[in-house]
Amino acid sequence: MTAHMISRLLSFAAAAGLVAAPIAGQAQQTMGQGNLLGLPSDLSMLQDSDPNHRVATAVVNGYVVTETDVDQRAALLLAANQTPVSEEELVRLRMQVLRNLIDETLQIQAAEAQELEVPAAEVEQTYTSVATRNFGQAAEQMDEYLRSIGSSPASLKRQITGELAWNRLLRRNIAPFVNVSSDEVTELIERLEASRGTEEFRLGEIYLSATPETEAAVEANASKIVEQLRQGGSFVAYARQFSEASTAAVGGDLGWIQLAQLKNPQLETVAAEMSPGQLVGPIRIPGGFSILYLIDKRQVLMADPRDAMLSLKQIQISFAPGTSEALAQQRVAAFTEGVRDIRGCGDAESAAARLGANVVTNDQIRVRSLPEALQNILLQLQVGQATPPFGSFEEGVRVLMLCGRDDPEVAAGPDFNQIMGELEDERIEKRAQRYLRDLRNDAFIEYN
């Protein structure tokens, strides 16, 4: 089970039918908002408070969220992270998991109050679908895996129930009252057409708010998150648990945007210099700190060359155990020279036989599915040309020969109905955030 698979599980709401449209951080706090509460700058606490000594249990309108619930949900995140976390990090993680479980409970209770209960059969069907489609496993195998990491099928099914219940609430109480006019869609299409060919970026963001008093602690916390992400932690999982932006529900994904939509010169400057797959942060901005991850970038309404389909021949040599480095280098040099003499793909098999190499034909390979280092090289090749050799003595040295390329069609203009749907989803998400805040404000919550 990979971290990527777990990440997909943690954000499987889209597969369950709940579409949460990206919003570019409009709900972020500003530095001066604390003053609106009329708080004194010099606080005197009436009793000692140890933030690291907290019991992660609560009673939400009579429903008990147990320590076991927190343990099992946190286990999913720890499995996604796949790297050890400190005790301090674990405390923060568990407290965030508790907050998420409270929200989940409020969503389920609100649905039940309106007689929108989620049938157990639908939960089981979704669980099985997640197991087979996202994990390539039968439900029984996923049961076993979840228990092996300290979680449980019941914990995941509870999360599924929460997602489905929330989706029902949004469909009844919010979606019917969201309207997008034809004029708004037409105006957006005109703006897109005017920006055809300019770059747009798909960014992930983790936002942490800070005041002058908490700035140092928040920055230290953000730096620890960046460290965990660089060690292989799941950006989606961390965004869902720690980000305070409205996009936390969708793993921090801002969607496809132009940098001006960030409405922050610092973030615009940083993002403009990033490459796909790059992580940068923490970045100090008004109101707190941001961590940015560039998922991808493209040109507006233009065909992406990385969507081209390639036909490739992979020519590879391997080395017997115990081969000395000197002999291996000699063979690589002979292989490199021999590849240069291959007269196109039709000559690949016979040339490989002379070189003691194997040939594997790979048809219908999309450029973007290959490692980024190879993408740029292959896009520059003509049919019959090969990449430079790559690999290692342990795994073998190989080249890829280009035997065919089908370029993507020029992108069509914006689709009216698709854009209207995206605008509606964005407004539903904004109202959903307000709806959840109202549920929190009206809830009776006891912490044990």
TrEMBL record:
Q: Which UniProt keywords apply?
A: Isomerase, Rotamase, Signal
Q: How far does the signal peptide extend, from start to end residue?
A: 1-20
Is Signal tagged as a keyword? yes
Spell out the PROSITE patterns in the cross-references: PPIC_PPIASE_2 (PS50198)
Q: Pinpoint the PpiC domain residues.
A: 198-296
Concerning SUPFAM superfamilies, the annotation shows: FKBP-like, Triger factor/SurA peptide-binding domain-like
The UniProt GO MF terms for this protein read: peptidyl-prolyl cis-trans isomerase activity
Q: PANTHER family, alphabetically?
A: CHAPERONE SURA (PTHR47637:SF1)
The name on file for this protein is: Parvulin-like PPIase
- Its source organism is Qipengyuania citrea
Tell me the classification of the organism that encodes this protein. Bacteria, Pseudomonadati, Pseudomonadota, Alphaproteobacteria, Sphingomonadales
